[in-house]
Amino acid sequence: MTNGKTPFVEADGRGPWARRWRDVVAEITSDLGGADLLSEGQRQLARRAATISIACEKMEGEAAAGNEIDLEEYGRLTDRLGRAFHRLGLERRPRDVTPTLGDYLARAAEEGGAVGDRGGA
């Protein structure tokens, strides 16, 4: 990155893989709380993780097309991606199972009780 907005690369950055790379960097950055909260090291590691992700996606596309891929290389890349996510603190994010207010109200209506009604006297 030169000015924090555009990657410092030789290519023009307009191809589909360049766009996908930027999308992955943005998603990882968002998972970490946003670019303004990240250190330079975290931003660099997020870019490296995005690069590894794109390499894996390209290999997955080849495999899906019926072409052989180097599974050793794919495994190494996947392992390194996992380590990068671990270093960034993204290895394990619990799923949010908190019901929305709408879900809660709908469930209460289905059960035939008022919200907060415990059935007591």
Sheet/helix structural class: mainly alpha
Overall shape: it is: extended
Q: Could you give the count of β-strands?
A: 0
Helix content: 55-70%
Q: List SSEs in N-to-C order.
A: HHHH
How many DSSP helices? 4
- Spatial separation of the terminal alpha carbons: 66 Å
Compute the gyration radius: what is it? Answer: 22 Å
- Please indicate the percent range of residues in DSSP E strands (runs of 2 or more): under 5%
List unreliable stretches of 5+ residues.
none
SSE inventory with pairings:
Elements: H1 16-31, H2 40-64, H3 71-88, H4 101-110
Name the features.
single chain, 121 residues, mainly alpha
Would you mind describing this structure in some detail?
By secondary structure, this protein is mainly α. The protein has one domain (16-110). It has helices at residues 16-31, 40-64, 71-88, 101-110. The longest helix is centred in the middle third of the chain and has 25 residues, at 40-64. The radius of gyration is 22 Å and the shape is extended. The model has no long low-confidence stretch (mean pLDDT 84).
